[in-house]
Structure formats: structure tokens, C-alpha cells
Automatic annotation (TrEMBL):
<dbReference type="GO" id="GO:0009073">
    <property type="term" value="P:aromatic amino acid family biosynthetic process"/>
</dbReference>
<feature type="binding site">
    <location>
        <begin position="13"/>
        <end position="18"/>
    </location>
    <ligand>
        <name>ATP</name>
    </ligand>
</feature>
<keyword id="KW-0963">Cytoplasm</keyword>
<dbReference type="GO" id="GO:0000287">
    <property type="term" value="F:magnesium ion binding"/>
</dbReference>
<keyword id="KW-0479">Metal-binding</keyword>
<protein>
    <recommendedName>
        <fullName>Shikimate kinase</fullName>
        <ecNumber>2.7.1.71</ecNumber>
    </recommendedName>
</protein>
<keyword id="KW-0057">Aromatic amino acid biosynthesis</keyword>
<comment type="function">
    <text>Catalyzes the specific phosphorylation of the 3-hydroxyl group of shikimic acid using ATP as a cosubstrate.</text>
</comment>
<keyword id="KW-0067">ATP-binding</keyword>
<keyword id="KW-0808">Transferase</keyword>
<dbReference type="InterPro" id="IPR031322">
    <property type="entry name" value="Shikimate/glucono_kinase"/>
</dbReference>
<dbReference type="GO" id="GO:0005524">
    <property type="term" value="F:ATP binding"/>
</dbReference>
<dbReference type="GO" id="GO:0005829">
    <property type="term" value="C:cytosol"/>
</dbReference>
<keyword id="KW-0418">Kinase</keyword>
<keyword id="KW-0028">Amino-acid biosynthesis</keyword>
<feature type="binding site">
    <location>
        <position position="17"/>
    </location>
    <ligand>
        <name>Mg(2+)</name>
    </ligand>
</feature>
<dbReference type="InterPro" id="IPR027417">
    <property type="entry name" value="P-loop_NTPase"/>
</dbReference>
Length: 169
């Protein structure tokens, strides 16, 4: 059965795309990112999907993107930050190697401030992120089979820890 070597989950700014790219390179495999797949399916950026079609439509496209990627991809798979909210996705992740990238509120705020626009964090990113972390932390914790702290650590260091954990699992 085809399986990703690692599925990365975590809040916005935890580094799923950044660490995912470095991890894939280190393992000699490709990175697939469900945010990119969702944009490709819709033919427009995530921000525009939210504006034109609403979050519910985005989440439906995201569920389909996650389902396809889990079935097809053999490399590293990064999920959108909120993909784990769907019960269907939570069930599909059972049996996969799921790497939860932990990030604290202050560090997440700094990191998303540096990156491209995220529709859920356009207004008052700190309080939006706080709410989002409160809701999601128990879910990330439950789904992660490998948990890696990222605050104050650079992506290369995080990748080495993930590799060690993958070798042990
Ligand atoms: N360990 C790290 N140390 C410092 N900066 C980091 C680290 N990981 C990621 N970053 C930076 O934080 C920003 C967000 O990272 P990234 O886009 O990888 O997060 P993400 O988890 O994919 O977020 P999203 O859920 O919104 O897709 C980027 O500017 C990235 O360079
Ligand atoms: O945390 C979230 O809900 C999101 C994170 C991003 O990866 C994108 O999937 C989108 O901006 C929503
Ligand atoms: Mg990302």
C-alpha cells in the first residue's frame, strides 16, 4: 500500500511547508502540500477561495485533497493547518506516520507575520492564532505519532530530529 513517509501537521507557522521541503530533500523524496493541491483544484490562491466561495467550500476541497494525497503520495506530505479539523481526515490519518510540529503562540505570531497572507489571520493575527491553538492543540496532540518542538530551533535541526524518530518508529 502506498503511504507517505511522513505526514506533517501543526498550526500556521509551525513550519510544515518549510520543514517539509527540507525533510523531503534529506530523504530524497518529493514534498506534496495539500494547500498547493487545493489551489490547483480550484485554479486560484487560498485567499481567493475564501473570498469567492467561503471557508466551507475550501474545507471540502481540502478534504478531497488530503484523501487523494494520503492514497497516492509516497514522499513527505504537508497538510494545511486546519485540515485536521475534519473528522473524516482524523480517521484517514490512523495508521500513518504523523509528525506534529509544535509552535508556541509568540513564535507562531512572529513567523506568520513574515510569510504570505493567510485568510484566517488577516485581522488581529495574535488573537486569531490564540483561539485557533486552543481549539486545535488537543487534536494535533492526539493525532501526532511523533511530536517535535520547533520554537527557537532552525529547520535543519528539526529535520534531524524527525529523521531520528522515523528511524526508531
Ligand atoms: N523552525 C523555524 N525557525 C524559524 N522560522 C521558521 C521555522 N519554520 C518556519 N519558519 C518560517 O515561518 C514562516 C511560516 O512557515 P511555513 O510556511 O513553513 O509554515 P506552515 O506550517 O506551512 O504554515 P501554513 O499552515 O499557514 O501553511 C516562514 O516564513 C518560514 O520561513
Ligand atoms: O490553519 C488553517 O486553517 C489554514 C492554514 C493554511 O495552511 C491554509 O490551509 C489555510 O489558510 C487555512
Ligand atoms: Mg504551509
Amino acid at each position: 500500500m502506498t503511504r507517505p513517509k511522513a505526514v506533517l501537521i501543526g498550526p500556521p507557522g509551525s513550519g510544515k511547508s518549510t520543514v517539509g521541503a527540507a525533510l523531503a530533500e534529506r530523504l530524497g523524496v518529493t514534498l506534496r502540500d495539500t494547500d498547493a493541491d487545493t489551489e490547483a483544484a480550484a485554479g486560484k490562491p487560498i485567499g481567493e477561495i475564501f473570498i469567492d466561495d467561503g471557508e466551507e467550500h475550501f474545507r471540502a476541497l481540502e478534504r478531497a485533497a488530503v484523501q487523494a494525497a494520503l492514497a497516492e503520495h509516497e514522499g513527505v506530505l504537508a497538510l494545511g493547518g486546519g485540515a485536521i479539523l475534519a473528522a473524516e481526515t482524523q480517521e484517514l490519518l490512523a495508521g500513518h506516520t504523523v509528525v506534529y510540529l509544535q509552535v508556541g503562540l509568540s513564535e507562531a505570531v512572529k513567523r506568520v507575520g513574515l510569510a504570505s497572507a493567510r485568510p484566517l489571520l488577516v485581522m488581529n493575527p495574535r488573537s486569531q492564532l490564540r483561539k485557533l491553538l486552543e481549539e486545535r492543540l488537543p487534536i494535533y496532540e492526539r493525532l501526532g505519532t511523533i511530536v517535535v518542538a520547533t520554537d527557537g530551533r532552525d529547520p535543519a535541526e528539526i529535520v534531524e530530529e524527525i529523521i531520528k524518530e522515523l528511524e526508531r518508529s
